[in-house]
Amino acid sequence: MREQDTIPPRHGQGLPPFPIREGGQGVRLFSYLILLLAFALRVFRLGYQSIWWDEGYSIAISSTSLAEATRATATDIHPPLYYYLLHFWMQAAGQSEFAVRFLSAALGVVLAASVMSFGSRLLGPRLGVVGAFLTAISPLHVAYGQETRMYTLETLLSLASAYLLFVLLAAPGSRLVWAVYVFTTALALYADYFPVEVVVFEGIFVLGWVACNWRRTSDARRFLFRWCLSQAAVVLLYVPWLGIALGQVAGYGFGAVSAPPILSLPADIWRVLALGAQFAVPGETSLLYTVGAIFIAGLAVRLLRQREFPLLFLLCYLLVTLGAFVVALQFRPFYHPRYFLVTTPAYYLLLAAALGGLWRLRSGLGVLGWAALAGSSILVLNAYYFDPALAKDDARSAMAFVNQEAEEDDLVLWVTPHPYQYYYRGRAAARTLKVDPLTAAGELSALGRGKKRVFWVVWRYSHQDPWELAPFLLRKDGRQLGARDFTGYRVLWYATPPEGFYRLLRGEDREVNFEDALLLNGFQAEVGGGSIAGGEPLSVTLTWRSLKSGLAEDLKAYVHIKDSKGNIVGQDDRFLYNLRRLPTRFWREGEIAYSFAAPVIKPGTPRGEYQVEVGVYSEKTKQRLKAAALRGPGIGATIQVGPSFVAPPLDSAGVRHSADKDFGPLTLLGYGLGLGDKRKVEQGETLSITLLWRAKEKPTSDLQAGLTLADKEGNVVGARPFHPAGYPTSQWGSGEVVVDKEDFQAPSDIAPGAYQLAVAVGDLPAYSLGEIQILKRPRSFRAPAVQYPSSIKVGDSIEFLGFDVKGGARDGQLFSLRPGEELTLALHWRSLAPTDRVYTVFTHVADAENRIWGQHDGPPDGGASPSNTWLPGQVVSDKHTIVLKKEAPLGRYTLSIGMYEAAANVRLTTEGGENRIVLGTVEVAGQ
User: For the chain, first and last CA: distance in Å?
Assistant: First the structure.
């Protein structure tokens, strides 16, 4: 049978006729087999996976009355049609996983049949069957045909709307078809909001067709009139929901959703269309190119043979709907493959046409195309069905655990009841906790009164508690007893506080300004019993106030716990959210916000006094905002850390080697040599060594330990005595575990070669920590030619030899710069005597009031030549690039340099008693 080709419209005839092609018995048989295949793929393992969050929400809404379902959807983001259908379906079929998903599976089969019917009308019965086959085996459609959501329904209704429009273009006079078109389009919009992409396509296509035929036929003008009436009728049918829809779309995902960069969207959309995969696929790149070649080459063959109106219709259907989706992303950044599911019927029919084109060109090409498409679908479907990593979030297992563990006198809490309520059959009372920083503590106290334990169940993607306030309160005032993770969910359980209530303290004892963006005006660190042990979290409550609206980036607050050397022994970084649950990009000026941090003190942290530091940084650039204390003690506090009696995992403590070496009352459990077990160091380089100790019994005296470096003959060439963990061992308790971090500097003048590193306690035999390779450090003892020579003694051991400069106009030592320009200095130093101090170089451009408008601080030679490695007579050159701030006012500034010891924050002074060296003047000229 030869398929008739469509012909272009002639004047006065409107569109060409679209003959209905009679299919043979073979085509009819294949159509039945394909629908059977679509059904089988959608019911296979239909109830195997757990109901996840969105599905639980659908079931919860649809389990209520139609009036209650309408009210619920009015506060959500989806119209109510699907929930109405599911409501009646569950009354008839029940609420098992299989039953509630079967509605989507059945709609998926109807969708495949509709693609077949539409394709037969446009392209002929054979290609209609091919389009249905591609829809049937599409992993994307199989996945959403197995989900209790509205996406298959909206795709089906959107396709029906486009199908009816095509029929009307062929026979515009049918009032019944016009009425069905209006009703179907309105139903699609009541199913979800994404069918509006298809409505946009229909409008653009109709207007384009009318423009092309306006002068040739009066049918075009009549069709435009009828189409405008139909759109008015759709709007009229949608009026009851229109106001709600506009409000929902305007507020959907505000601040909580995102979209990929627009340049990466085409590749991602093509991956989903071509493979039907929402996850990475082995050999993905080759498959994408293969499907792309089939699609483009096959369509090109058909379009070059003749001009086909149905293909133009399908191309517009595909491209305009996708274009509408991409444009919408620029105004409301929400992205997920299910959001352009309404586009896919056009794609599958075009792909069917492409296969037909290849078959006409050469049957072998058609066979290869079929094999490639079927093979890719089988690959993705196999992963979808059987790969545990791709399984839905497992609420079933999480709630089975809670059902078993929770007792009658316990309390089960969650932020939303679905899907937990679907599976919960436990003995304990289960309640929904509304998490709000202003009321959560009081509500939690009321719910938990008289209870023994509280089980907290949380979904990984839930945004109802972005502060993680509930676990913060439950742990802070109660005591965490355990935690268990399931796919997508976490169950934590806590003992309730002895006094029976939870409290949230908000200290208003300081004001710290972070670059006029945020104000920290409340800080509260709660330490029970006066000290906190290693392995336990510190509870910190921070209060913030926004100083401007709409910050450019989302900011994170960090809480660091540091020892006297600046080592971080506890850390908690998290995004800042206001009371509307929005990140800082969406804050308004004057808004109050809270954050709750729980940095865990590393197990084995030596007892003593530690500093708590608070700061803010950009998640995107990782740049910290500078802080200025306006009132109160600034951005930190002091806490006491008590002993730890549990040994941490070796890797987490920086310990890569176990030891189990007894030194009297102390046992060396393990050790590590810096990052990656570093065993090659240059002359004078400092090696960071981690030692893990345990007190077998309480030491009766203060023990001294030592690190030694010995050559092959056993001669000690370097030694460093220390007290383990920096505090007297006589204060250690029996069983106490301590992670001890010690620095050992290789002698600057040591000969390169292999040496043995060892540790000992008292007079007991040393324990070898292995071999260390000492490498020769590159050094220069010759002063270079200097552009601006000088000779100024800095401190007791360093001479400043002068500097070179690059950038800016120069007139002697007057340097001219424009705002935003940079100046690069090469500073030259000579060592006069060895020093064990580590100095930092500063370079400043400051005004008359000593306000800095450009600076760069850093160690000499970018850290390659620390000052404690210098030998007498050694010359070190280091570069510093100063960028003048763009907002720097016109005028003259002082260019100065110097050195300081970062640990003590003390500058070195010159022989003249100055704490800086003035290099010249910087004149800031206009743009």
Answer: 77
